[in-house]
Amino acid sequence: MQTVVVGLSGGVDSSVAAYLLKEQGYNVIAIFMKNWHDESVTISDDCPWIDDSQDALLVAEKLGIPFQTLDLSLEYKERIVDYMFAEYEAGRTPNPDILCNREIKFDVFLKAAEKLGADFVATGHYCRKAQAESGEYRLLAGKDGNKDQSYFLCQLTQAQLSKALFPIGDLEKPAVREIAAAQDLITADKKDSQGLCFIGKVKLPTFLQQQLLPKEGDIVELPEDLPAYDYYAELLNTEDHKALAEPFSYRPNMGHVVGQHQGAHYFTIGQRKGLGVGGTPLPLFVVATDVETNTIYTGQGDAHPGLNRKALFIKTEETHWLRNDFQLEIGESANYGVRIRYRQPLVDAKLIREKEGLYILFSEKVSGISPGQFAAWYEADELIGSGIITH
Asked: pLDDT digit string (tens) for 10-24?
């Protein structure tokens, strides 16, 4: 009998994953990961991890499977939280959930599970796993298009994927809740968790302020007729992927000051809420941040030319191929569907490999391309690779 360690989070998805594995005849062990309990940082008066761990314990007892708690808070701080602070301080936009899967759930947690004799680890992610004729493992989107979470696993390696099981990937969310209810699991009607995977209900800026001190700066509104935008409009008719991937460069005198903010490192490109500036015909969106001058550049409306670009660039060392047999060599190109954030519809794009890295040239302009985010590329419903956006 093969042994599977399930990351039991206290939510309905991992609860049903554990139930299904037991039904399939696996020897199932449940582990609750405790990722954050730094008392020096006040994150929330109602941090839910205690309730979640209790719910996970009750589910394990109901299913009759062994249960234990694993404290990974030190590793989480070193690998995720410190990295996240450093990225925001540098004016980039990290995705801690993707890092959590790569560094914690399918690395630290996986190694701990293997010490218990586990053949696999399982999670409640809405995605599927298969195997190609080449022998390479395939990561496929979940059957539930509204819940597909393959994007969050875009940094997994073949070695990690070979040890992973996703029991609910073929199910839709209502069916998962029905199974939980039929088994009388306490998590059957529990709401999905919101926010970051370790700080619960607290808003990101509130958390960031624990480490990145507030620093007042200008909010500058940019007009739509900057010369740089005219030049970019001319480029749109070309296939010059390098020029199209170059970010816009701004100076404060290019626009006018419309308000004040408490730190450029709290904001990300494409953000609309939290600016505290009203009275404009269209909502203001962040089109760029400059942490050196502590300036936020904004534009009116989601069609502002500074917010929408047709290409991006990923350094070679930040490019990751889940399917190693699909890797592009220098000078090669391929067409894929690409997304740069969770639940964004795939956009047709050409990937072009150059010596310095990978360029992604979209078939249409994409809004809110931000350094530090992950771009992930798919062939139909299979995730092929990903990378951290340089610019």
From this structure: 899 999 999 999 999
Between 116-130, 270-284, 360-374, the lowest mean confidence (pLDDT) is in 270-284
Residue partners of 334: CB distance under 8 A and separation at least 6: 326, 328, 350, 351
266-277 pLDDT tens trace:
899 999 988 988
Is 154 a residue of the active site?
no
Given 47, 100, 127, 154, which residue is catalytic?
100
Distances (CA, A) of 354 to 8, 158, 317, 366, 370: 42, 24, 12, 22, 21
- Residue 378 belongs to domain with CATH number: 2.40.30.10
56 and 176 housed in the same domain = yes
Backbone angles phi, psi at 257, to 5 degrees: -75, 130
**Shared domain check, 25 and 171:** yes
Distance CA 353, CA 32 (A): 41
Q: What predicted TM-score, i.e. pTM, was given to this entire model?
A: 0.93
Q: Point out the domain boundary residue: 280, 300, 320.
A: 300
Last residue of a domain, one of 139, 173, 208: 208
| Judgement on whether residues 33 and 146 belong to the same structural domain of the protein | yes
Q: Which domain holds residue 108?
A: 3-208
